[in-house]
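Dear colleague,

Thank you for sharing your sequence with our group. We've completed the structure prediction you requested, and as agreed, I am returning the results in plain text so they can be pasted directly into your records. Please verify that the sequence below matches your submission; if there's any discrepancy, let me know and we will rerun it promptly.
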Amino acid sequence: MALEGELKDFNILEVIQLLGQQGKTGVLRVWGLGKKDDEAGIFFFDGKITHATSTGRTKGGLLGERLAKTGIISRDNLQTALRTQKKSRRFLGEIVVEAGMAEEQTVLNALHTQVHELVYEVFRLEAGKFKFDALTGEAFPKISLQLHADEVMLNILKMVDEWPEIEKKAPSPTMVLQKAGTLEKHGIDLSEAHASVYRLVDGTRSVQEIIDMSLVGKFATLEILASLLEGGDIKELGIKRGALPAQAAPRVEVRRQRPAYARYGLGLLISFILLLVSLFPFKLAFLWTDHRGEGYSLRGYAERMRQERVEWGRKIFFLERGRYPESRRELVDAGILTEKDLKGVDVRRESNHP
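Please find the predicted structure tokens below.
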């Protein structure tokens, strides 16, 4: 029986974990990214993830474009490699390495980023379909990853958990950054990932341009930039003109010139809601319940989010310890969750896991 289903009924990370545990070889196809017919493919060989592709990715998200933007290969070399790929139907990464255009480890780093970004995009989908097709006798790329499914799952969960905090600290996509000179002055060396992002800061590129040129991906790039900003190793120079679409500029300007209108409109809205509550209190229950009559915006939604976090905490605990936690205190002591995450949730509630 083929492994397939709807994303609303299955957690795609659990599907990936299952394929890894069973040592499957094939491709997990997912539909639902972007346009209706766009397809993402996550490739497995003996249960390990080797690479990932997507027909719906923007040009900047493709492997060859990323290598060209970072200056690792020239535009001429990229066009040569693409022509070779079209004729031979081989994988671009191995063509680039065999032709001596780039080092194998550099291509693997770019593939590592591409896999995690694509799996993260798939994980965030609320609707769509998936299907696993077993492959036998298929030629897998010579230049490919060997990622454990559990490793990828934990990395994605880390991204989901840390992203809200990184988003708060990260600079605006249109902000131009400049080196502060402190690292050079004190002779401080950075890790390879931090150094690769730091080199892209030149006083002319915007944050978005740095993300597009970085081989470590959007998540890691913003995390590193936020860290460098917080440490005073880089500084904000100003907004890059022309970085925003033309139609967005007037909207920002209007808000700055007429803030009184926004306050006035907000006041009217609040007054209107209070009036409704006073006149028809018994009619407004639908505002706070979902289609099943459960609490939605204030109670039900928050409760479901807490339960989801606890369930993933149990899975992470199992992966690290080989067993499920006996009590919620074990999750807190292990540093996986906090007391706030567990408030109002019984960790030993009914579950699909022992």
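Summary note from our side: The chain has 15 helices and eight strands.

Kind regards,
the structure core
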